[in-house]
């Protein structure tokens, strides 16, 4: 089984913020691939399903971003799984809007959700970095990250989430490069 975590903050006031694109990604995957009903577990919301021949548990921590690691660690402990099955979907300032990059491990880039997971489990987990772009000056970062997507971004965001969901079985199979390429191809079309 794999554990895929979408990072975000709970509550309707945060639903459309750039910081919540991780939540949006796992929701899109769950809907497109007919995952089971949402259950409240591990200080978050979980849905189980299959992507290809892989069983995947989708988790949205309800702990707020800076405590995400508690929820993730609890889920891994419950299923007696190691960090090698963990994939985290998160917003990335240092990536152009709607771009997607997958990598193992790496730095935290000031991301409180990643920092919390790193504190609980270490840095060696797979990340799906979802570009939100940088506002240009560090004083504007918080407002940008916690700001809602603009009306002009809604169609590209919908396309991004659709591409992520459509190509999710490739990611589940462990072919990160093909996943990134196929998502990019879908977004060009």
UniProtKB/TrEMBL annotation:
Q: Where is this site: Stabilizes the basic form of H active site to accept a proton?
A: 91
Q: What is its EC number?
A: 3.1.1.29
Q: Which CDD domains match?
A: PTH (cd00462)
Query: Where along the sequence does the record put site: Discriminates between blocked and unblocked aminoacyl-tRNA?
Result: 9
Q: Kind of enzyme, top EC level?
A: hydrolase
Q: Which GO terms describe its biological process?
A: protein quality control for misfolded or incompletely synthesized proteins; rescue of stalled ribosome
Identify the keywords attached in UniProt to this record, alphabetized: Cytoplasm, Hydrolase, RNA-binding, tRNA-binding
For molecular function, the Gene Ontology terms on record are: peptidyl-tRNA hydrolase activity; tRNA binding
Query: Any idea which positions bind tRNA?
Result: 14, 64, 66, 112
* Major site of localization recorded for this protein: cytoplasm
Which sites are catalytic? 19
Q: Where in the cell is it found?
A: Cytoplasm
Entries under InterPro entries matching the protein = Pept_tRNA_hydro, Pept_tRNA_hydro_CS, Pept_tRNA_hydro_sf
Which branch of life, at top level?
Bacteria
Swiss-Prot/TrEMBL catalytic activity: an N-acyl-L-alpha-aminoacyl-tRNA + H2O = an N-acyl-L-amino acid + a tRNA + H(+)
What cellular component GO annotations does this protein have? cytoplasm
Q: Per the similarity annotation, which family is this?
A: Belongs to the PTH family.
Subunit structure as annotated in this protein's UniProt entry:
Monomer.
Q: What does this protein do?
A: Catalyzes the release of premature peptidyl moieties from peptidyl-tRNA molecules trapped in stalled 50S ribosomal subunits, and thus maintains levels of free tRNAs and 50S ribosomes. Hydrolyzes ribosome-free peptidyl-tRNAs (with 1 or more amino acids incorporated), which drop off the ribosome during protein synthesis, or as a result of ribosome stalling.
Record's protein name: Peptidyl-tRNA hydrolase
Organism of this sequence: Sphingomonas dokdonensis
Q: Which gene encodes it?
A: pth
